């Protein structure tokens, strides 16, 4: 910080990057107001961050470009909330009454689970502590089964041998899955090795696999590949994904729905 109390260039850029990662996007005017600088200064900071491969400039601001090993904590995943709400509501049509579903740990899948009607008779298997807790305490009709295993602090989801072994002994009608990244070239990816192994097992635990992923996950590639796009029967995403990209994904995925 300068002697007059203003943030230095590197400090401003660090703040901008943190905000982008927390919110999924930064807007020039909002950042300029928050940091008490001119919009032109913010644009220069965004250009510097883009040159370092950390930010991608978009109209009016920028969005974060994450490294393959980067993984935000569950409480930090507050971006695209309206989109996740629409995705979750659309996914309800895939829930079989009286059936068995698997709901994977994740922010979009958690929003979907919150929308499951409290009086719907369904068995829900999950590796997510928050999903299990909210369903068990809210629902009057659901049977909730939690996998067990080592709980990752980042996702509050269970992974490793115990979770995988339990997954392999169960079979669901529909699996509702999330992902950190998906692309035509690299398939389904996630930053953590143990998470990848558990996700790989989840792809085989059901008759039908529904992927709930907002548009920001498309084209993103994380550290560990755990599946192919062809493993997914139905992708539910939002209208932030251009129709052309949705059509390209649809050539590999059984069905793509934009909401």
From TrEMBL:
Pfam families given in the database record: DeoRC, HTH_DeoR
Residue stretches making up the HTH deoR-type domain: 9-64
Primary role: Repressor of the lactose catabolism operon. Galactose-6-phosphate is the inducer.
Top-level taxon: Bacteria
InterPro entries hit by this protein: Carb_Metab_HTH_regulators (IPR050313), DeoR-like_C (IPR014036), DeoR_HTH (IPR001034), NagB/RpiA_transferase-like (IPR037171), WH-like_DNA-bd_sf (IPR036388), WH_DNA-bd_sf (IPR036390)
Protein name, as recorded: Lactose phosphotransferase system repressor
Keywords: Repressor, Transcription, Transcription regulation
GO molecular function, one term: DNA-binding transcription factor activity
């Amino acid at each position: 910080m300068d002697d007059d109390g203003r943030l230095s260039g590197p400090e401003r850029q660090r703040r901008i990057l943190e905000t982008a990662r927390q919110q999924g996007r930064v807007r020039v005017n909002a950042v300029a107001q928050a940091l008490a600088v001119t919009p032109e200064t913010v644009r220069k900071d965004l250009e510097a961050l883009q040159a370092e491969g950390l930010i991608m400039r978009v109209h009016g601001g920028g969005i974060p470009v994450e490294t393959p090993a980067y993984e935000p904590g569950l409480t930090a995943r507050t971006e695209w909330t309206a989109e996740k709400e629409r995705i979750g509501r659309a996914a309800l049509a895939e829930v079989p009454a009286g059936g068995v579903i698997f709901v994977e740990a994740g922010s979009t899948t958690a929003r979907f689970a919150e929308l499951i009607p409290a009086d719907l008779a369904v068995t829900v298997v999950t590796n997510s502590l928050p999903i299990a807790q909210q369903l068990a305490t809210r629902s009057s009709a659901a049977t909730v089964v939690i996998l067990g295993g080592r709980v990752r602090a980042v996702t509050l989801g269970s992974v490793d041998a115990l979770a995988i072994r339990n997954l392999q002994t169960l079979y669901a009608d529909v699996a509702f899955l999330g992902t950190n990244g998906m692309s035509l070239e690299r398939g389904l990816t996630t930053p953590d090795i143990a998470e990848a192994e558990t996700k790989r097992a989840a792809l085989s635990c059901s008759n039908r696999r529904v992927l709930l992923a907002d548009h920001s996950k498309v084209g993103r590639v994380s550290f560990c590949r755990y599946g192919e796009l062809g493993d997914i029967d139905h992708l539910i995403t939002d209208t932030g994904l251009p129709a052309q990209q949705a059509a390209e994904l649809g050539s590999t995925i059984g069905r793509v729905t934009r909401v």
